[in-house]
Specification:
The complex is a heterodimer of chains A (280) and B (251). Chain A contains 12 helices and no strands. Chain A has 280 residues and is an all-alpha fold. Chain A is globular. In chain B, 35% of the residues lie in helices and 24% in strands. The chains are: A mainly alpha (280), B alpha/beta (251).
Chain lengths: 280, 251
């Protein structure tokens, strides 16, 4: 905590001048930390000073202790690994299916007319509603959980890819034709780079939904996973464990999202948006 | 020799965009195509490019029928149509990916130097002005060393000053290897400034109305009386093609 505060003090000082508050200035990112850090410090003080028991809303120090205890015992790692592997498999399957079907329907009007109405109808169903059916079909173990995650990931990826492929600039495709690109060359040199920006957005929203659905999947009965830690914390009245698991979700979610951005960033330097993002 | 043999094009909706257009262009000639809207001048260019096959007749280059885009035929569109994810150098190299790297890099560097953009090789297309982007498009089309270069209103989106500048620039580039140029334009000045022959087309269905040899030596002085006379002849033919009184009579 002390480190964080010096951090802010050190960076806020030049912020008094106009230039320090510009997006490119160092005060930019530090400013965003101000509210959560103040809230954490405030709550910690409130509990320490006896204004609140902190029983249902544990103060940061207790959450941190619980987090460390779970991590040191290897429990946290085991649960996080279980959750991560479910997300990985479900996300992989959802992305593969969404990309394939999206590419086919985006490219071909026939397949779009054939498949899109059905898929849009299915999309209107809240994915959680499938849970009972998936349990009947695939049992209560991994298959039903991974399927639920895959379904959640599928739709944003499908929509993103279909839209991106369908809206590739015809004039740019014509440049490819004029330079006599073959079918595979056209895909590699024109279509893939053209759809990549939308694809990254689709992957990121798919991943977000994947993390959302892994919690739902683990709520429906799991003996390990971060979702299990949540339920366990609720049933045994351990709010610090719940918050620690939530923190773990936040960290993993942010890291995996960042991995997508970092892996695709080099291919998107040409985009205005990403250039600005880098500069900020 | 580029030959159009009674080329006609009817679109799926029944519109006859082009009817019985015959033309032969000797290697190294510059032909401008002008005409009112809907006269089929772009359709004709796309048929030569092999992008839209004609419904009737055929396009022949040096004895070979053109039915699809051909390596000896390059095209420059109204918009630069640069690929935004490639650098300027990457865009210029787009059509010569099959060449060995050293050869490719050399050609790209020479082409960029030739259009005055050597310092922009690593820039992204979005960082260029409209005129610079179109110069990159010209370099991209010329780098594979086409025998025929087609231009579809290539300068119409540019301001008058940049346009005149690029017209001179195009002529300088043309003088390097002397490809055949077929230029579609709606700018009579541009047609007279660049072309040996001006083809005036007439709409519904699109067909050749009149062919005018400009008979001007290069370089051309846009203020010379001979230039004015040639422009007058083209404008006159355009008026007649649209069956309206000459502009001077209205004025």
């Amino acid at each position: 905590m002390a480190v964080a505060e010096t951090h802010i003090d050190g960076e806020m000082a030049p912020g008094h001048g106009r230039s320090g508050l510009l997006p490119g200035g160092i005060a930019g990112p530090a400013l965003g930390l101000l509210v959560p850090v103040l809230a954490a410090v405030g709550w910690e003080l409130a509990v320490r000073l006896g204004w609140s028991s902190g029983r249902l809303v544990p103060p940061p120090s207790v959450v941190w202790e619980t987090f460390l205890r779970l991590a040191e015992g290897g429990e946290l790692g085991r649960h996080a690994a279980a959750t991560l592997s479910r997300v990985a498999v479900g996300f992989g399957a959802g992305v593969a299916a969404g990309t394939f079907v999206g590419a086919v329907t985006g490219y071909s009007t026939f397949f779009s007319r054939l498949l899109d109405p059905t898929l849009q109808a299915l999309r209107a169903i809240p994915s959680i509603a499938w849970v009972p059916l998936f349990i009947l079909w695939f049992g209560i173990f991994e298959a039903s959980k991974v399927t639920l995650i895959a379904v959640g990931v599928f739709f944003p990826v499908y929509l993103g890819v279909m839209g991106a492929v369908a809206s590739v600039d015809r004039k740019i495709v014509e440049v490819g034709r004029a330079f006599r690109l073959s079918g595979p060359q056209m895909v590699r040199r024109i279509l893939l780079p053209a759809v990549l920006p939308s694809y990254v957005i689709a992957l990121r929203s798919g991943l977000g939904l994947g993390w959302m659905f892994v919690v739902a999947a683990e709520f429906m009965g799991a003996s390990q996973g971060l979702g299990y830690l949540l339920i366990d914390g609720q049933q045994l009245g351990k709010p610090a464990q719940i918050v620690a698991a939530i923190v773990a979700f936040a960290i993993l979610g942010k890291i995996t999202d960042w991995l997508i951005v970092a892996a695709t960033g080099p291919f998107l330097r040409w985009e205005d948006r990403f250039a600005r993002h880098e500069a900020a | 020799m580029l030959v159009l043999d009674r080329v006609g094009k009817t679109y799926h909706n029944g519109v006859r965009a082009l009817e019985g257009v015959s033309l032969s262009v000797a290697h190294g000639d510059i032909v401008a195509v002008v005409g009112g809207s809907g006269c089929g001048k772009s359709t004709m260019l796309r048929a030569i490019a092999g992008l839209d096959a004609p419904s009737r007749g055929r396009v022949v280059l040096d004895g070979a029928a053109i039915a699809a885009p051909h390596e000896k035929i390059g095209i420059i569109f109204q918009e630069p149509r640069l690929l935004p994810w490639l650098t300027v150098a990457g865009n210029v190299a787009f059509g010569i990916g099959h060449l060995p790297r050293s050869e490719r890099d050399g050609r790209v560097a020479r082409a960029l130097a030739r259009v005055g953009l050597a310092d922009k090789a690593q820039a992204w297309p979005r960082e260029l002005s409209g005129g610079q982007a179109q110069r990159v498009a010209i370099a991209r089309a010329l780098v594979p060393q086409p025998e025929v270069l087609l231009l579809d209103e290539p300068f119409s989106a540019l301001d008058a000053f940049t346009r005149a500048d690029l017209q001179d620039h195009l002529l300088a580039l043309w003088a390097d290897t002397r490809p055949t140029l077929v230029l579609v334009t709606h700018d009579v000045d541009e047609a007279v400034a660049l072309a040996d022959r001006v083809l005036v087309m007439q709409p519904r269905p699109g067909r050749v109305f009149e062919e005018i040899a400009t008979g001007l030596a290069r370089p051309r002085d846009r203020r010379a009386s001979a230039f004015d006379a040639a422009r007058g002849r083209v404008l006159d033919a355009l008026d007649r093609s649209l069956e309206r009184a000459p502009a001077t009579a209205i004025a």
